[in-house]
């Protein structure tokens, strides 16, 4: 897919240049004001993420079903503000069911794939994928591996050209999880997910093209204090810049309106019965 929206010299590092080092990169250091704004944004959106019963809405057959994939350390609750708006617009929506998204990347990708299969079976249509941060990586992996299930792909603050282009705080959290995994704690990502065979397999999938016919939009922000925004500039995607912080992106009204507008242009596509 042709790249639009940003100059080509802003594209993040190719996967082959990321390296296979045994340490977690922590080179991304956001400006102080960006980091402060990032932290304050958590307080601003916290109330929007409280658990609640979804409102009953009527599904519009002219709207594509949507699978929402949350980011690292979060769950479906983080996508609730977006899900509410999409349901009111007539979309059938589903969460990914992978909370708290701290497990092995390959295993989580398999879980998201199984959820997509169930959504497609239930609705009879291909599903639009919206993934936030690490959720966008899982969503892209699904689009590459199972294009027959996917109608479109939207990623929010997702570093698909370099999954480890994170700030020092997140790098430390990843390091802690790998240490806990090495001590035998189950259900969390291990060193192999960052620098071993699992990481290599994930990068190989991310380096593949999203198949023709699947619109792919990568939403990024220069005010992202968690992910190096350059790593969001996947050359396979159409790039759209917003002003939200990383941790508010899934609840930011402007981002939500953008996603709704993008999905409005996706026609529901029945699944090939073969």
What's the layout of helices and strands?
Elements: H1 32-46, E1 66-69, H2 80-88, E2 93-95, H3 105-123, E3 127-132, H4 134-145, E4 150-156, H5 168-182, H6 191-195, H7 197-206, E5 216-221, E6 238-242, H8 253-264
Largest sheet: 6 strands, parallel
Uncertain ranges = 1-26
- Provide the gyration radius in Å: 18 Å
The coarse silhouette is globular
Strand content: 5-15%
Please count the helical segments.
8
Oligomeric state of shown chains: single chain
Number of DSSP-assigned strands: 6
Q: Helix share of residues?
A: 25-40%
- Structural class call reads alpha/beta
Order of helices and strands: HEHEHEHEHHHEEH
Distance between the termini: 27 Å
The side-by-side strand order for the widest beta sheet comes to 2-1-3-4-5-6
Describe the structure in your own words:
The chain has eight helices and six strands. Helix content is 35%, strand content 11%. The relative contact order is 0.20. The chain is globular and about 45 Å long. The chain is an alpha/beta fold.
